[in-house]
Amino acid sequence: MTTSTEPDLDRVAERAAAVARAFAATEPRARAAALVAVADALDRNAAELIAIAMRETGLTAPRLIGEVRRTSNQLRLFAEAIVDGGYLDARIDAADPEYVIGPRPDVRRVLEPVGPVLNFAASNFPFAFSVAGGDSAAALAAGCPVVVKAHSGHLELSRRTAEVVIEALDGAGMPDGVFQLIEGQQDGVDLLKDDRIRAGAFTGSTHVGRLLADIAATRPRPIPFYGELGSVNPVYATPGAVVAEPELLQGFLASVAGSAGQLCTKPGFLFVPAGAELGELAEAAAAVGEHRLLNPGIGRAFEERRSAVLGADGVTVLAEGEVRVDDDGQRFVTPTVVEVSVEQLRAQPDALLEESFGPLSVIVRYSDAAALPDLHRELFPGNLTSTVHAADSEAGELGDLVEALAETSGRVLFGGWPTGVSVTAAMQHGGPFPATTTDATSVGTAAITRFLRGVAYQNAPAALLPEALRDDNPWGVPQRRSEAGRSSEWGSLTGIH
């Protein structure tokens, strides 16, 4: 598989569009079996794929072993969701001549696939957010053909993973052309502009994500674009937490340094009371071994951000960290942690508030806990996560802060650390801008609905209804039914009369 040329792009788009209807019509159990087949194939080829990923990304074997496991089991989870059928949100309103608002026709609504999806793979998760990762899995689960734009940071891995996925889908009897790979920045942009692409997904930088989102929004036929961009994920520790959690700072440092801080959920800020003891943070940071950043471009960007933070007025350096550059331009880094006051943070937003993609975080000392909710809304309008560490006895004092965090974040944690996103039905991995371009989730089974659209069928002959809306319900999916004659009882059933 080679980098696509312009004529190839037309063929890619044509294949995806041509197969869209057939793939959308696949029976849920068959599509679920195909996802499981892909999961099994990834597990069978894990050793080969992990070796390639280690060489291309510098990530460690334990990290990548866990990521493959996460990726394959995410596919299995989505297979369960397909078979269950609840994600289709099938609704049936029976015809009702006595309907209180006026005679009601037979109306049936279900979520249907949007069509071909273009997925821009991420650099920092070469499995979980790349070729066979969450966006691809969600789109396939929804019944949408997928075209993945490979990330330049792990091209060999992308090609091999795509071969594994395509072979598994073919073996499971899925239509030819349901999964394809392209390469090259310009090819990704050009395909995003193609009218045959009906949705886009992206995980990466705010700058690139905004450019792509603007392209998707300004096409002659605009399409939804789900970009996960960036987040600083603030953490707030109360006075009680500092006393009750002796391992607070160690947990913080581990979360900052894990995978060299190249995680979208890394805690970029830790707020602690003005008088809190920081213990042996510097010594603990110095004990962390160096870790290679993903590629020279990310390394250069981290070096620039680190210099800006270290050069900000009034910054106290708790752990300076190091950056080593090898002959290939790769950066090898250790954690950098600095301290500022709330006033210094407010005074230098350009230097301090931007995300640092790497092992760098800022500890902020506050003197007025009551001011934290307004401060959070002011400084952090959109986050993937926000976290509170507090003693049990302080729960009654946290209402305003938690409300502020919920307004501005996709996931609010109580204790623990935001790195490590559980792949589960209830997970929300998204948030208000600038965390994402569209506030949806890219993790968990709710991610499937991004690639579906509602269609209502009114007075349709039974033979022409989608399977999920038929009275005999051949797919066995949940159906929300509103029978005739019930509208006259509205209100009385709720106990409000």
From TrEMBL:
Principal EC category: oxidoreductase
Keywords: Oxidoreductase
Residue ranges of the region described as Disordered: 471-497
UniProt cross-references to Pfam families, sorted A to Z: Aldedh
Aldehyde dehydrogenase domain mapped to chain residues: 3-370
EC number in record: 1.2.1.4
Protein name per its UniProtKB record: NADP-dependent aldehyde dehydrogenase
PANTHER family the UniProt entry points to: ALDEHYDE DEHYDROGENASE-RELATED, SUCCINATE-SEMIALDEHYDE DEHYDROGENASE, MITOCHONDRIAL
Superkingdom of origin organism: Bacteria
InterPro entries linked to this entry: Ald_DH/histidinol_DH, Ald_DH_C, Ald_DH_N, Aldehyde_DH_dom, Aldehyde_DH_Superfamily, ALDH_KGSADH
UniProt organism field: Agromyces hippuratus
GO molecular function, one term: aldehyde dehydrogenase (NADP+) activity
